[in-house]
Design goal:
8 helices; two-stranded antiparallel ribbon; elongated; mainly alpha
Length: 157
Protein backbone atom coordinates (compact mmCIF):
# COMPACT_ATOMS: atom_id res chain seq x y z
CA UNK A 1 0.00 0.00 0.00
CA UNK A 2 1.46 3.31 -1.08
CA UNK A 3 1.08 5.76 1.78
CA UNK A 4 2.02 9.02 0.13
CA UNK A 5 5.08 10.85 -1.11
CA UNK A 6 8.00 11.84 1.06
CA UNK A 7 7.82 15.60 1.67
CA UNK A 8 11.62 15.86 1.41
CA UNK A 9 12.69 13.71 -1.53
CA UNK A 10 9.22 13.12 -3.11
CA UNK A 11 9.66 9.35 -3.42
CA UNK A 12 6.79 7.04 -2.65
CA UNK A 13 6.55 5.70 0.89
CA UNK A 14 5.40 2.09 1.12
CA UNK A 15 3.61 1.34 4.37
CA UNK A 16 4.03 -2.39 3.68
CA UNK A 17 7.80 -2.06 3.43
CA UNK A 18 7.95 -0.03 6.63
CA UNK A 19 5.91 -2.67 8.47
CA UNK A 20 8.19 -5.52 7.32
CA UNK A 21 11.00 -4.42 9.65
CA UNK A 22 10.17 -5.50 13.22
CA UNK A 23 12.14 -2.67 14.86
CA UNK A 24 10.63 -0.16 12.45
CA UNK A 25 7.14 -1.45 13.18
CA UNK A 26 7.72 -1.16 16.94
CA UNK A 27 9.17 2.34 16.54
CA UNK A 28 6.11 3.41 14.52
CA UNK A 29 3.91 1.98 17.29
CA UNK A 30 5.74 4.02 19.92
CA UNK A 31 5.48 7.18 17.85
CA UNK A 32 1.77 6.57 17.19
CA UNK A 33 1.06 6.38 20.94
CA UNK A 34 2.76 9.71 21.68
CA UNK A 35 1.07 13.07 21.36
CA UNK A 36 2.03 15.12 18.30
CA UNK A 37 4.48 17.47 20.02
CA UNK A 38 6.36 14.70 21.82
CA UNK A 39 6.48 12.47 18.73
CA UNK A 40 7.76 15.31 16.56
CA UNK A 41 10.40 16.21 19.16
CA UNK A 42 11.49 12.55 19.47
CA UNK A 43 11.89 12.16 15.70
CA UNK A 44 13.98 15.34 15.57
CA UNK A 45 16.08 14.19 18.51
CA UNK A 46 16.68 10.75 16.96
CA UNK A 47 17.91 12.52 13.82
CA UNK A 48 20.78 13.93 15.86
CA UNK A 49 22.22 10.40 16.14
CA UNK A 50 22.32 9.84 12.37
CA UNK A 51 25.77 9.96 10.80
CA UNK A 52 26.44 12.30 7.89
CA UNK A 53 27.02 9.37 5.54
CA UNK A 54 24.52 6.73 6.71
CA UNK A 55 20.91 6.48 7.76
CA UNK A 56 20.01 5.52 11.32
CA UNK A 57 19.23 1.81 11.55
CA UNK A 58 15.73 0.97 12.77
CA UNK A 59 16.95 -1.20 15.66
CA UNK A 60 19.26 1.56 16.89
CA UNK A 61 16.51 4.17 16.50
CA UNK A 62 14.16 1.94 18.51
CA UNK A 63 16.74 1.45 21.29
CA UNK A 64 17.45 5.21 21.39
CA UNK A 65 13.74 6.03 21.49
CA UNK A 66 13.15 3.67 24.42
CA UNK A 67 16.16 5.07 26.29
CA UNK A 68 15.01 8.64 25.64
CA UNK A 69 11.46 8.05 26.83
CA UNK A 70 12.82 6.40 29.99
CA UNK A 71 14.74 9.57 30.94
CA UNK A 72 11.67 11.36 32.31
CA UNK A 73 8.18 10.49 33.45
CA UNK A 74 6.90 13.87 32.29
CA UNK A 75 6.41 13.78 28.53
CA UNK A 76 5.81 17.55 28.21
CA UNK A 77 9.10 18.27 30.00
CA UNK A 78 10.93 15.67 27.93
CA UNK A 79 9.46 17.04 24.68
CA UNK A 80 10.57 20.57 25.55
CA UNK A 81 14.05 19.33 26.51
CA UNK A 82 14.34 17.40 23.23
CA UNK A 83 13.22 20.45 21.26
CA UNK A 84 15.82 22.64 23.00
CA UNK A 85 18.51 19.99 22.45
CA UNK A 86 17.73 19.73 18.73
CA UNK A 87 17.81 23.51 18.31
CA UNK A 88 21.11 23.89 20.17
CA UNK A 89 22.89 20.96 18.50
CA UNK A 90 21.77 22.01 15.01
CA UNK A 91 22.93 25.56 15.67
CA UNK A 92 26.37 24.24 16.68
CA UNK A 93 26.67 21.75 13.83
CA UNK A 94 29.35 19.13 14.22
CA UNK A 95 29.32 15.40 14.80
CA UNK A 96 26.26 13.25 15.53
CA UNK A 97 25.41 12.47 19.14
CA UNK A 98 26.60 9.19 20.61
CA UNK A 99 24.75 9.28 23.95
CA UNK A 100 22.01 11.12 25.85
CA UNK A 101 24.29 13.25 28.07
CA UNK A 102 23.40 16.53 26.34
CA UNK A 103 19.67 15.84 26.74
CA UNK A 104 20.20 14.91 30.39
CA UNK A 105 21.99 18.22 30.91
CA UNK A 106 19.12 20.13 29.30
CA UNK A 107 16.61 18.25 31.44
CA UNK A 108 18.60 19.14 34.55
CA UNK A 109 19.21 22.75 33.60
CA UNK A 110 16.25 24.58 35.10
CA UNK A 111 17.63 27.99 34.14
CA UNK A 112 17.08 27.60 30.40
CA UNK A 113 13.91 25.52 30.72
CA UNK A 114 10.32 26.72 30.58
CA UNK A 115 8.55 25.39 33.64
CA UNK A 116 5.09 26.60 32.64
CA UNK A 117 4.60 24.07 29.84
CA UNK A 118 2.18 21.19 29.95
CA UNK A 119 1.47 20.15 33.49
CA UNK A 120 2.62 23.43 35.06
CA UNK A 121 3.69 23.01 38.69
CA UNK A 122 4.08 19.23 38.37
CA UNK A 123 6.63 19.73 35.57
CA UNK A 124 8.48 22.36 37.62
CA UNK A 125 8.60 20.05 40.64
CA UNK A 126 9.85 17.16 38.50
CA UNK A 127 12.57 19.30 36.92
CA UNK A 128 13.59 20.66 40.31
CA UNK A 129 14.03 17.08 41.45
CA UNK A 130 16.28 16.32 38.46
CA UNK A 131 18.45 19.39 38.64
CA UNK A 132 21.99 19.31 39.96
CA UNK A 133 21.48 22.77 41.41
CA UNK A 134 18.90 21.60 43.96
CA UNK A 135 19.06 22.79 47.56
CA UNK A 136 19.52 19.24 48.86
CA UNK A 137 22.79 18.88 46.95
CA UNK A 138 25.82 18.81 49.24
CA UNK A 139 28.69 20.93 48.01
CA UNK A 140 32.37 20.30 48.51
CA UNK A 141 34.53 22.51 50.70
CA UNK A 142 36.19 23.89 47.58
CA UNK A 143 32.84 24.84 46.08
CA UNK A 144 31.77 26.41 49.37
CA UNK A 145 35.01 28.42 49.51
CA UNK A 146 34.58 29.61 45.94
CA UNK A 147 30.99 30.60 46.66
CA UNK A 148 32.13 32.52 49.78
CA UNK A 149 34.74 34.37 47.71
CA UNK A 150 32.15 35.21 45.06
CA UNK A 151 29.70 36.43 47.70
CA UNK A 152 32.45 38.51 49.34
CA UNK A 153 33.38 40.03 45.98
CA UNK A 154 29.75 40.92 45.31
CA UNK A 155 29.32 42.49 48.74
CA UNK A 156 26.97 39.83 50.08
CA UNK A 157 29.24 38.57 52.86
Amino acid sequence: MQLNRCPVCHTRISLDAMAQDEAGRELLGILAKLDGETGFALVGYLGLFRSHTRDLASDRALRLAKETLALSESLPALAEAMRITVEQIRAKGGDPLSNHNYLRKVLGDCHGFKTDIGAGQAVKDHIDGLTVYGSNKKTSKTAQALQSLEDFGNGRA
